[in-house]
Amino acid sequence: MSDTERPPLNWQAGARGDNVPARALPAYQQIKRYVVKRIADGDWKPGSAIPTEAELVKEFGVARMTVSRALRELTAERVLTRVQGAGTYVERRRYESTVLEIRNIADEIAERGHRHTARVLTLERSDDAGAIDALGLEAGPVFHSRIVHYEEDEPIQFEDRYVNPRVFPEYLEQDFTLETPNHYMVRLAPIQRAEFRIYAQKPDAQVRRHLVMEIGEPCLMLWRRTWVGEDVATSVQLWHPASRFHLAGMV
């Protein structure tokens, strides 16, 4: 369906899967259904502009306040985003993760009904002085991995992890395309405690490239250390594109 073939307000489509006849709904609800359907069908992509209020008023033959209400509610529902002076855009997808509970990212993605894949960039021994100190060790080497996690082929997390070899001596022998480091470690040795910090900052060129980000686009970076018994088990930086991800939690 092209942009010039918009349906009249009695169009028959339940964009969210309900069976309420469209003609029984208020006009602003019908416009909301139409917008959601165009997005769901892939006609309007995340980040792309939708028709202006004036164009929608002309196409649907309704008052401007009706169109304005529909777009305002879709913005509140995070379907759209409105930029003053620039227009209205389809909201980019934002994946959510909890920071108060250490979870496996593959499980979180599966709960959203999506597919997780991983690409291992680095799996090696390291004598990085900062990592050795963070793990509470007197000397190296320590184990080091860099992994990019994908949700439906879209990169959403760059994982840069250092691991204590005394706690996980077989870490470098694992296939982390089949099992995430988090799942592997929790399966072997339950975590006793953790500390974390969250930063909003620009990534370096390597992180930006693997997360397919624009120059200058910020990341949410979660730094975390976890303990198994009295030993620091791992120190990790988890980088997430701020435009596609947010962190949440409840206490």
Q: What would a concise description of this structure say?
A:
With 251 residues, the chain is an alpha+beta fold. The protein is 25% helix and 31% strand.
Task: Explain the overall architecture.
It is a single chain. By secondary structure, this protein is α+β, with helices and mostly antiparallel strands. It folds into two domains: 22-90, Arc Repressor Mutant, subunit A (Orthogonal Bundle); 95-248, Chorismate lyase. It is 25% helix and 31% strand. Strand 1 and strand 2 form a beta hairpin. The longest helix is centred in the N-terminal third of the chain and has 14 residues, at 27-40.
- Count of DSSP H/I helices: 7
What is the CATH T-level topology of the largest domain? Chorismate lyase
Main beta sheet strand tally, sense and closure: 6 strands, antiparallel
The quaternary organization reads as single chain
Range of helix content: 10-25%
Order of helices and strands: HHHEEEHEHEEHEHEEE
Mean pLDDT: 81
Q: How are the strands of the biggest sheet laid out side by side?
A: 4-5-6-9-8-7
The CATH architecture of the largest domain would be 3-Layer(aba) Sandwich
Which structural class do you get from the secondary structure elements? alpha+beta
Rg, alpha carbons:
23 Å
- Strand segment tally: 10
**Poorly predicted runs of 5 or more residues:** 1-6, 10-22
Keywords: DNA-binding, Transcription, Transcription regulation
Protein name: Histidine utilization repressor
GO molecular function, one term: DNA-binding transcription factor activity
GO biological process, one term: L-histidine metabolic process
